[in-house]
Each structure stands twice: as C-alpha cells, then as structure tokens.
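Late entry, evening session. Most of the bench is empty. Finally got around to the prediction I had been postponing all week. Sequence below, unchanged from the version circulated by S.P.
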Amino acid sequence: MTWALRALPFTALGPLRANKAVQYLSTRMPAGVMVILSLYTLRTVPVTEARAIAPLAGLAVTVGLHLWRRNALLSVFAGTALCVALSSTFFAP
C-alpha cells in the first residue's frame, strides 16, 4: 500500500506533461513564487530605517541574478546569503 501511494503521483504526471496549461505553469511558477514570497517578506520592512538595507539589497541581488542567469536556486541562495551577511554584520541589533 505504501509503495502504491508513493508511485501514484508519478503515474498521474505522465498524461499531464503534454498538457499546455501545465507546460505554461512550469515556466512561470518559479518567478511567480519568488515574487509572492518577496512581497510577503518585505511587507513589514520599515523602509525609513537603516536596517531595511539588508533585505532590500538581498532582493536586488536576487532579482538581478534571476534576470541575468535564469537560475532560481542560484538567485535565491545568493540573495539570502547577502541579506543574512548584512543583517548579522552591519545591521545587527
């Protein structure tokens, strides 16, 4: 039973791979998810304070790398690393 439940998603994906809607979503979803997460994260950032520089710089690096390289993993990793590095060194409370 466990094996069957684990194999079910892979067997169901076969016919969906040729679907035009699924193909469209597979190209648009990574950027869409990144935009939603960015907006959710930045909604509480006080833009009038200096500590807002770290997340905004991380966002700029993430967007720039994604537009340049089209690699979601690289852009998210680099933006997060920059944000954490700036937050923990220059803007530590």
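Two things to note before I forget:
The radius of gyration is 19 Å.
The chain has four helices and no strands.
Will write this up properly tomorrow.
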